[in-house]
Amino acid sequence: MGDSLVRFAVVAAADAVAGFIRPHQTDSSANFAAATMLLRPLRRFLGRLPLAQPHRTFVDARVTWVRDRGLDHAVEKEKYLQPFHALKDFLLLPSSASSSPSSSGPSLTLTSISAHAAQLHLPFRPIRFIRLFPSALIEESPPPSSGVPPHPVIRPTDELVRLHEDEQRALEAARPDSADRLLRLLMIARRRRLPLTLIDRLRWDLGLPRDYARSILPDYPDYFQIVPSTSGVPGALDLELVLYRKDLAVSAMERYAMKFGGYKKGMSLPFPLHFSRGFDLQKKVRNWLDEWQKLPYISPYEDASHLKPKSDLAEKWTVAVLHEVLNLLVPKKTEKENLILLGEHIGLPPGLTKVITHHPGIFYVSNKLRTHTVVLREAYRRDLLVEKHPLMGLRYQYSHLMHKGKETVVEKGKKPRRAAADDSALTDIAGEDEEGEEDNEEDDEEDEEDVMEEEELSTIESEDLESDDEDANQSAR
């Protein structure tokens, strides 16, 4: 406020000087010269003042986050799915050295699973995690009369084995599609290469098999090659593009537009918009959005280095890249951290969170499962995918199996019944003297999730405001 008053006083003084000169000068050139001489100190002083902030547009403004319960459920219903799937693979894939095939099927000792708990990303003690899914995992122990130490053994149910076999067939059938999807991601990358550690992080979302480096990459030598990383990290490896396929350099937005004909490169392509119920756009924001949608669409596979940073056109290209990346992913969603890490390699600007949160009709940020998940809105109708990849159909079946049978094992107000024959032996092995406390951990975690939701929303918005402050500071400098 003080700066504004000073600025007003300076301008008023300048007007007064100009008013003083006019009646005392008859020559226009003399007027101009005299005014310039007298106003020069005022201009110098004016230049030292902080520049006034321009009127904030929709891109620069803070956008209110509105919950979408359908998309939240799409994220929340996959709770524990990834660690469950990792444990399933550890139990059933031939590469699991600890797996013990027998006449009764594959099995693993609880000791072996516990030794790999961190690698499997199990959220809590293995025995408690396993007991959450009685329709998928069977817990057994030798009878006391056998004389064998009562080490619990974990076996898959027949239904889990059947689903696993269906998944292996689906992965085999999807190999060409998986290779093309990975190729497109490398084509978007600025240097046509990505760290293998980043691809490992995105493996689940890309729908790649766990052993993709051995089962897919060697079969496509014309597509990929593994090379030493230029990051300077000892032993680090990158996956590098060998062949750039122009026929694949067509985004999902362009493919959809071509169905109706008449589309040419550089034309305007508006993004589909779907807002949460209760979300309302102000008139000036909607007017800006309408104009922004009319801007030319620049493909994420094109070089956009010529675009002016922080311009509306650069913003639209960034949205196009995020839109295409999410389309390449099997679930059409991923953790925000994955996009930030990927953005460093595909030329996205630093303020990625700001772009995501400022386009709530295109992207939705869910704070479920103690993380921020970015969802492509147009890919979902409520909590279901519009076009479901075969692997996603199998993942839904895994989720159904994980929850199946819980109501028969857990009665209201009672602890889960043990499936093992010798409860006392398992108590000694698993340390069940702590189970009473740990059984409440999951309930506490769920309560904490509800309490933390508002804090997480504040985090999203504070990150947004921090990026605004950084922009303001840069402008002031």
Can you put this structure into words, describing what you see?
With 477 residues, the chain is mostly helical. It has a domain at 2-48. 51% of the residues lie in helices and 8% in strands. It has 20 helices and eleven strands. The strands form four sheets. A three-stranded antiparallel β-sheet has the order 1-3-2. Helix 1 runs antiparallel to helix 2 (28-48). The longest helix is centred in the last third of the chain and has 42 residues, at 435-476. It is globular, with a radius of gyration of 30 Å. It starts with a helix and ends with a helix. This is PORR domain-containing protein. Residues 66-406 form the PORR domain. Residues 430-477 have a biased composition (Acidic residues). One of its GO terms (molecular function) is RNA binding. Pfam families: PORR (PF11955).
Radius of gyration: 30 Å
What's the tally of helices? 20
What is the strand content? 5-15%
Mean pLDDT: 79
- The helicity comes to 40-55%
Q: First CA to last CA: what distance?
A: 19 Å
Strand order of the largest sheet: 1-3-2
What structural category arises from helix and sheet content?
mainly alpha
Number of strands: 11
Shape label: globular
**Unreliable stretches:** 1-26, 42-56, 408-413, 416-444, 471-477
Major β-sheet profile: 3 strands, antiparallel
Gist of the model:
This protein has 477 residues and is mainly alpha-helical.
From the structure above, extract its key features.
mainly alpha; 11 strands; disordered N terminus; 20 helices; 477 residues; three-stranded antiparallel β-sheet; 51% helix
